[in-house]
Amino acid sequence: MTDASILLLDDDPDVGLAAQLLLQRRVAPLTCLRRPAELTPALDRLKPALLLLDLNFGPGRTDGEQGLRLLAEVQARPQPPVVVVMTAYADIDLAVQALKRGAFDFITKPWDNVRLIATCREALQRALPALAGEPASTALEPSRSLAAQERAAVLAAMAEAEGNLSAAARLLGLSRAALYRRLDKHGL
């Protein structure tokens, strides 16, 4: 993808190295940051199309509040990058909160390499029209895989139902058991 770059903010240097090795050649150039204080200057300087944002920084932090606060700051910027949030401490409520606050997707660590690559490519496809000053096109939606469309539908239903599994299952026309299988299938 041309004219696209990725910025990763994660306090674990091993995560940064793994992401760089995986995404650098397969998706787009990637720059790694380790401290939240570095984010704003890097966004101003690099103008990335995609931000991979960890939700927890520092030992013992697992609630995701730091990352959600950073997500809100990024979304408040003019022409913000597309944001994919990542955490090792995933739960449905946190995923729903992140998506409601504007995240494109939610990745759990350790990630599945194929899924991370696909998610980053889809996020950059969404970002590219915005980089060119064009409105985002819905014509890109049919190019998403069936699994990606299913995952997006499950996440949207979970967000609309505010994390209530019974309500989300009703919205999707599924039983709770079928919804549980889909949540497990998509790592949610």
Which short descriptors sum up this protein?
188 residues, 8 helices, alpha/beta
Give the helix/strand class.
alpha/beta
How many helices? The count is: 8
Helix amount:
40-55%
| Order of strands across the main sheet | 2-1-3-4-5
Structure explained in plain terms:
By secondary structure, the chain is of the alpha/beta class. Helices cover 50% and strands 12% of the residues. The chain has helices at residues 13-26, 39-46, 65-75, 92-100, 113-131, 146-160, 165-172, 176-185; strands spanning 6-9, 30-33, 50-54, 82-87, 105-108. Helix 4 (92-100) packs across helix 6 (146-160) and helix 6 packs across helix 7 (165-172). The longest helix is centred in the middle third of the chain and has 19 residues, at 113-131.
Write the layout of secondary structure elements.
Blueprint: E1 6-9, H1 13-26, E2 30-33, H2 39-46, E3 50-54, H3 65-75, E4 82-87, H4 92-100, E5 105-108, H5 113-131, H6 146-160, H7 165-172, H8 176-185
Parallel strand pairs: 1-2, 1-3, 3-4, 4-5
Helix pairs in contact: 4-6, 6-7
Short summary:
This protein has helices at 13-26, 39-46, 65-75, 92-100, 113-131, 146-160, 165-172, 176-185; strands at 6-9, 30-33, 50-54, 82-87, 105-108. It has 188 residues and is α/β, with parallel strands linked by helices.
